[in-house]
Amino acid sequence: MATGALTPSAKDVTESLLEFPDNFLLIDLCGEYDRNLTTIENSLGVQILRRGNQLAIIGEDGPRHDTLDVLRALYSRLEAGRSLDPGDIDRELRMGHAADASPADQIELFKGDTARVEIKTRKKLVEPRTDAQKAYVNALFDHELAFGIGPAGTGKTYLAVAVGVNMLISGHVDKIILSRPAVEAGEKLGYLPGDMKEKVDPYMQPLYDALNDFLPGKQAAKMMEEKVIEIAPLAFMRGRTLSNAFVVLDEAQNATTMQMKMFLTRLGEGSRMVITGDRTQIDLPRGVNSGLWDAERLLKNIPKISFNYFTSKDVVRHPLVAAIIEAYEADEPR
Predict the structure, then answer these.
(1) Cβ–Cβ < 8 Å for 157, 278
(2) What is the DSSP letter of 45?
(3) Residues 241-266: what's their mean pLDDT?
(4) pLDDT, tens digit, for every residue of 144-178?
(5) pLDDT tens-digit readout, 82-106
(6) Strand order across the 54-58 sheet
(7) Residues near 47 by beta carbon (within 8 Å), at least 6 away in sequence
(8) How far is 84 from 74, CA to CA, in rounded Å?
(9) CA 101, CA 164: separation in Å to the nearest integer?
(10) Which stretches within the chain are classed as H helix?
């Protein structure tokens, strides 16, 4: 953390100075063409000026103190030898300054009101960027069956796959099974070219994308070849008992009630299940109930099952995505 003292400017009481002992780390903190500082300025409504190895923060008391906390936290991250990308800045702006992160080779999950939550994978450390995401990750570690419900872009599936990879490489489970309904294909699957894998792979691509973010390509391919990691349509789960596995059902709003019941009853000893979905994007035929809606209604009072909810405020894709979701939500009552 930066060791310089904060001192009010003699010219302007709304200005504070923060001094950084390592000028090279300060360069990384500012980012190329000071783009990191610009992001913080736009988000918190302050002005940040660089003066040698100091940053001057000009603004009202509340935003100015928030900016100081964010800059300290990001600099501390750099001091620990870790990278700084736009996602890290976004996370710090959303969640505020938390306790210093532990080294990557220590326990991957840190809990508590002020603790930082991190998920260790082969390729990167994954950090939730919002309070809802943080609570969700905690629930994934604490519960054998967890639901993540909310709009697209809130990290429901991404974080679930990250936790699955973490549990696999730490020996808590023996395999990962990722599934989703291939609703768009419907009865036309048979007319698509190729074998069954080639027919359904386009619908599974988001799961492949998430997986490749956490495991080196060759290692992920080897694990899939050895069936340590499976990616399959929901229909392929029938008749199986999934033991010592981390199982994710994505796009669960497109599972029927019977499919959802079938999937949930696959849970075996030593396994964990995560069900993710968006109730506003149901593609089932008219008159067919969503299994996600029914599961939420029937299971919400079972203490050992976790339900975590996300809103447009938890969207971590392009800022326009959150605005689009909010616009559609505002139009729903009409």
Answers:
(1) no
(2) T
(3) 92
(4) 999 999 998 889 999 999 999 999 999 999 999 99
(5) 778 887 787 777 665 433 333 333 2
(6) 7-8, 15-19, 54-58, 47-51
(7) 41, 57, 58, 59
(8) 8
(9) 21
(10) 23-30, 35-44, 61-79, 86-95, 131-142, 156-169, 196-214, 217-225, 257-264, 291-299, 319-331
H-type alpha helices, 96-155: 131-142
pLDDT tier for residue 113 given thresholds of 50, 70 and 90? very low
Which of these, 23, 1, 272, 242, lies nearest to 137 by C-alpha position? 272
DSSP 189: G
Supply 1's token pair.
């953390």
Query: CB count, 10 Å around CB of 157?
Result: 23
Give the pLDDT confidence of 186-220 residue by residue, as tens digits: 444 455 555 556 666 777 788 888 888 899 888 88
Q: Which of helix, strand or coil describes residue 194?
A: coil
Distances (CA, A) of 2 to 30, 51, 55, 254: 14, 15, 11, 49
> How far lies 293's CA from each of 27, 254, 277, 326, in Å?
49, 10, 10, 21
Nearest of 116, 39, 38, 132 to residue 73 by alpha carbon: 116
Average the pLDDT over 27-48 and give the result.
Answer: 89
72 vs 78: CA distance, rounded Å:
10
H or E segment at 179?
strand 175-180
Q: What is the pLDDT of residue 120?
A: 86
Take residue 12 and report the two structure tokens written for it: 């302007």
Task: Give the angle 72-77-82 at the CA atoms, nearest 5°.
Answer: 160
Residue 233 β-bridge partners: 180
Q: State which amino acid sits at residue 283.
A: D
